[in-house]
Amino acid sequence: MRNLPEHIKHLVAHRTELETLAMRDLFASDPDRFDSFSLRLDTLLFDFSKNRVTSKTIDLLAGLAQAAAVEARRDEMFSGAIINETERRAVLHTALRSFAEAGPVVDGRDVMPDIDAERHRMDTFSGRIRAGDLKGATGKPFRDVVNIGVGGSDLGPAFATAALSPYHDGPRLHFLSNMDGSHVHDMLDGLDPPETLFLVASKSFTTDETMTNAATARSWLADALGEDAVGSHFVALSTNLEAVSGFGIPEDRRFGFWDWVGGRYSLWSVIGLPICLAIGYHRFQDFLAGAASVDKHFQSAPIRENIPFMMALIGIWYRNIWSFASHAVIPYDQRLARFPAYLQQLDMESNGKRVDRTGSLLSHATGPVVWGEPGTNSQHAVFQLLHQGTDIIPVDFLLALRDHESLPEHHDKLAANCFAQAEALMVGRSEAEVRRDLQESGMADEDIAHLVPHKVMPGNRPSNMIIYERLDPRTLGMLIALYEHKVFVQGVIWGINSFDQWGVELGKKLAKEILPMLRGTTSPESRDASTRGLIQAFMEKNR
Ligand code: F6P
């Protein structure tokens, strides 16, 4: 953005034109506003008409994206160029959902044959587990599968399997992620060793949380069935297959992927094995195909008709020109309850950066705080702040037009609430309207005067609405890919590397130093007084 001062200047000037303009007036004066500010892709509709935008805004934002050469960077990503410069890696999660004959070349090698080989292994393995053909050490089929992973090796498959529960016809899936012993304790408590399969999912195969949980699960299994049973009950999903061998997982149970797949972009790879086990490989392919259809759209649609571009540009408009620091994602779809958590890693780990790609300190804002909870529950918890708080928080609403349950009494009400919240944020309730409502209710003038300011809703609060026919595997793949590319476009405009995550390293290093202090084997003398005091307090209760 530092190279785009003219574009920013125009956008800032344009903001002052819109400052006093109410969206409700924009709708009143333009009967085509919904058609002009919404885009369709397959069965999905992206309505961005309830934003503080006019066609001039869109022109200016599209000009910004053009000037930032986002399309060229996008093409570089798809071609396998090294765009993750600090880790010297290509970024090719898109190849994982491609069904092209030939793919991008990395280190002189077409990536597609390797991808196809792992897909084939996933197909065969998941098919055999689901059929009960591949059994545990005692000859029983697997009833429960526990994925042990964290971050990208957990959030994606965990949320996607939950989202697709109507399609589950395989073993029961569980996700163990936290190194808090309560997580592994409570999970193992309900499981039967002979019928339990563990997937150790870790790109690096060194992540402490995952290795600690895997070791505890391994002991639990070996204690119950003997050391020799481990090989039949553990599977590894990793890029670091050498480290896997030390864990005692046989070669035919090791599924690989590549360093050009970022952790938070990895659910399209073998990290998606839990999804395959739950819904079957054919439906997993539909999931990949949904994402691939968004890739095609992202690569080919002009900026103004390109949904990820528009999601990103509207986000930039609010983050950088209006200084809105937070973004809410509210799925009116209970099965997407963990989607906000997934998007938090995708967005905040990718775009939570303070220097540009050359290492220079940025003078503009980057990634917003992303958060959310499903509707309608969130209406009864956080919506007060969205409607009347002092911060303006743009919202993405998500809603399936059809449910899987055939419970119209529920689904009609769910949809009505979703549309109503977006409308309420936009139209608000003016002082005159509040006063009139209260007068009509027969309230005394004195009481009205007291209550009016509390009931005024400023309105003009922006939201996007993403509606889709049904939350099926293909649609879920589309939704995820839309957000991936949104994050990408924003990262390019901000001039940052969206594919590294150096900020997470320091805490890991310090934890390694502090652990022996808690165990009394090294001295906490070198730490600051607060950390020393906390270590002391822990030791008093534990040693
Ligand atoms: O610490 C952050 C992180 O590296 C994430 O980027 C990643 O998804 C997660 O840890 C888990 O890493 P791994 O898959 O290597 O265990």
Structure described in brief:
The termini are far apart.
Would you identify the regions where 5 or more consecutive residues have pLDDT less than 50?
Answer: none
- Radius of gyration, in angstroms, nearest whole number: 26 Å
The total of helices stands at: 22
Q: Please tell me what the overall shape is.
A: globular
Structural summary, described in words:
With 543 residues, this protein is an alpha/beta fold. It is 49% helix and 11% strand. It contains 22 helices and 13 strands. The chain has helices at 5-18, 23-29, 33-36, 55-67, 70-79, 112-131, 155-163, 181-189, 208-225, 230-233, 241-245, 273-279, 281-300, 307-321, 339-351, 383-388, 408-427, 431-440, 445-455, 473-494, 505-518, 529-542, and strands at residues 38-41, 44-47, 105-106, 109-110, 144-148, 172-176, 196-201, 234-238, 254-256, 326-332, 369-371, 395-400, 463-468. The strands form 3 sheets. Strands 1-2-13-12-10-11 form a 6-stranded mixed beta sheet, with helices on both faces. Strands 6-5-7-8-9 form a 5-stranded parallel beta sheet, sandwiched between helices. A two-stranded antiparallel sheet has the order 3-4. Strand 8, helix 11 (241-245) and strand 9 (254-256) form a beta-alpha-beta unit. It is globular. The model has no long low-confidence stretch (mean pLDDT 97).
